[in-house]
Amino acid sequence: MSLLVLITAGVWWWRDHRFGPNPALIMVDQVTIDGFTKLTSGVIFDDPPSAYATYLGDTTDHILDRLHAPNTRIFPRSDPLRDPPPDSLVIAVGDAPQGCSLTLERFLPTAAPYARHGVTRAQAANLENGTQTKLQLKIHCPG
């Protein structure tokens, strides 16, 4: 019992020190880096004064290093399901020397990636008529 408490406390300590005590959690369905899709799901943690993007199923630590910059904000803290961001939102990456730019936008998956997104045939109809969209984070780092 005490071991479980210690493990839980350690996880919360790491989370608070890695992402801050109240990170904004934004689910992203697809991430592209310089035009190439790197994964089909991910999470953005907004932890001022720095921003971290955590990619699930992909090792992109070098991208994390390039995105980490002082005075960087991804977008205002909000629940994207209750208070969705605009259809297209350009995000400047603070003082990053590489001048990376981020764009968060909604997209409608085509028929081809339905299986990758785990979309059933019934859900596909909702996707096609625009009632269900996904969020995509585009990252562009010149050079």
Detailed description of the structure:
- By secondary structure, this protein is α+β, with helices and mostly antiparallel strands.
- The strands form two sheets. A five-stranded mixed beta sheet has the order 3-2-8-7-6, with no helix packed on it. Strands 1-4-5 form a three-stranded antiparallel beta sheet, with no helix packed on it.
- The protein is built from three helices and eight strands; from the N terminus they run αβββββαββαβ.
- A hairpin with a 2-residue loop joins strand 2 and strand 3 (36-39).
- Helix content is 23%, strand content 31%.
- The chain is globular and about 50 Å long.
- The chain has helices spanning 2-19, 61-67, 121-128; strands at 24-28, 30-33, 36-39, 42-47, 50-55, 88-92, 101-107, 134-140.
- It has one domain (20-140).
Sketch the major β-sheet. 5 strands, mixed
Which structural category fits the helices and strands?
alpha+beta
**Gap from first CA to last CA:** 52 Å
| Helical residues, percent | 10-25%
Number of domains: 1
Overall pLDDT? 44
Question: What's the overall geometry?
Answer: globular
DSSP helix count? 3
- The run of helices and strands is HEEEEEHEEHE
DSSP, total strands: 8
Order of strands, widest sheet: 3-2-8-7-6
> What radius of gyration results from the CA coordinates?
17 Å
Strand content: 25-35%
Identify low-pLDDT runs: 1-28, 38-98, 108-119, 127-132
Write a brief structural summary.
The protein is of the alpha+beta class and 143 residues long. Helix content is 23%, strand content 31%. A hairpin with a 2-residue loop joins strand 2 and strand 3.
